[in-house]
Amino acid sequence: MHKTGIFTATSFVVVVGVIVFFSGTSVSSAADIDAKKLYMTHCKTCHGENGKPTDLGVGLEARDFTDAAWQAKVTDEQIIKQINNGTPEKMMPFKEKLSQEEIKALVPVVRSFGKK
Ligand code: HEC
């Protein structure tokens, strides 16, 4: 009887573990992230709706995302790094505010402004 008890307890832990694992991954799946909305919420104030810096952005010397020369030389890693760390006095870091999935999802949004 004692043995059966341990067996039941173990399978219970395994089942709960599997459920937690799968629900955890589905909650943060990339498909659920509305990257455009994230951009409009967190980035538009400086970088503008269309990737052209706003007055505030110009004052801070924000990057113009429609600049083809910049788009050609910047890597996705650099964009991710910039969103994570920001630039002191210019752009706030987002690593505490957004998940890594959300930050990655913003890269194609930034890229989309460079396409004519
Ligand atoms: C408070 C204004 C402000 C906000 C809000 C802001 N940025 Fe910036 N961003 C800047 C400024 C200023 C620079 C230029 C920084 C520099 O020259 O180092 C910049 C630079 C960048 C760059 C270019 C880095 C490079 O290699 O030249 C990227 C990409 C970027 N921001 C993405 C974002 C994204 C995505 C968001 C929203 C999650 C965001 N920024 C929110 C002000 C802002």
Molecular structure report:
The chain is mainly alpha-helical. It folds into two domains: 31 residues; 80 residues, Orthogonal Bundle (Cytochrome Bc1 Complex, Chain D, domain 2), CATH 1.10.760.10. Helix content is 62%, strand content 0%. The chain is built from seven helices and no strands. The model has no long low-confidence stretch (mean pLDDT 87). It binds heme C.
Write the layout of secondary structure elements.
Elements lengths: L1 H26 L7 H8 L1 H4 L7 H5 L8 H6 L2 H10 L14 H13 L4
Helix pairs in contact: 2-7, 6-7
The structure holds heme C.
Heme C binds next to α3, α6 and α7.
Strand content: under 5%
Structural class of the secondary elements? mainly alpha
Note the total helix count.
7
- C-alpha geometry: elongated
Low-confidence stretches: none
Helix content: 55-70%
CATH 4th-level superfamily of the largest domain: Cytochrome c-like domain
Biggest sheet architecture:
none
CATH class annotation of the largest domain = Mainly Alpha
For the secondary structure, the number of strands is 0
**Rg, alpha carbons:** 21 Å
Quaternary structure state of the chains depicted: single chain
Q: List SSEs in N-to-C order.
A: HHHHHHH
At the fold tier of CATH, the topology name of the largest domain is: Cytochrome Bc1 Complex, Chain D, domain 2
A few lines on this structure:
The protein has 116 residues and is mainly α.
